[in-house]
Amino acid sequence: ILPIVLTYELLSSLDFSIPSTVTAISAYAFYGCTLNSVSTTTVTNVGTYAFSTCNIPTINITSPVTSIGNSAFNAANTTTLNLTGVINISGTYVFQGSKITTLILSNSLTNIGSNAFGTIPSLTSVNIPASVTTIGAVPFYNSVCAINVDAANPNYSSDASGVLFDKNISKEELTDFMKKYNMNFPVTVGEENFTLAKAFDD
């Protein structure tokens, strides 16, 4: 485990490669830390607030991460985030309020937690692979970005305008959801319900 105390000893470094013996990054490990880049090929667990409010422009995580804690990258000043090894974005608000402009997701990613990419105005597009089976509530809340879903994904799809669709939501569920939260247009809707959703908006 990479302990919190290491963070303060690394401040003089520019590029930091996490040692191959490390498999977990502790909560708050890089909190508020300033580095040029961080990379790992062995970490499988990222703790809560691990990179929150950090000033690290580039982060590369190419190891098979199965757990990312809540708000792990919250408000991070990170522009390039390479997550080609991440299998599960399990936490909530994981990237909320960060400065991401380039996001690379793993082709093995299965889960995206609730509000994962909320309030990231710098993020203009997200490519969701075919492997994703679960996406939590309001994953892109207050973020205006085009969502591109791999055509082979059996659970989700996107249209030419970059809207995310959940293929498993019925008309009844959509109606109830919109009424419950007084919504004019849902963040994710079943593909067959697009017309219904637009009628609500009108």
Task: Give a structural overview.
With 202 residues, this protein is of the alpha/beta class. 11% of the residues lie in helices and 23% in strands. It is built from three helices and 16 strands. It has helices spanning 5-9, 171-180, 194-201; strands spanning 15-17, 24-25, 37-40, 45-46, 58-61, 67-68, 80-83, 88-89, 102-105, 111-112, 125-128, 134-135, 146-149, 156-158, 164-166, 188-189. It has a five-stranded parallel sheet with strand order 1-3-5-7-9, with no helix packed on it. A three-stranded parallel sheet has the order 2-4-6, with no helix packed on it. A three-stranded parallel sheet has the order 8-10-12, with no helix packed on it. Strand 14 and strand 15 (164-166) form a beta hairpin. The longest helix has 10 residues, at 171-180. The chain is globular and about 50 Å long. Residues 184-202 have low confidence and may be disordered.
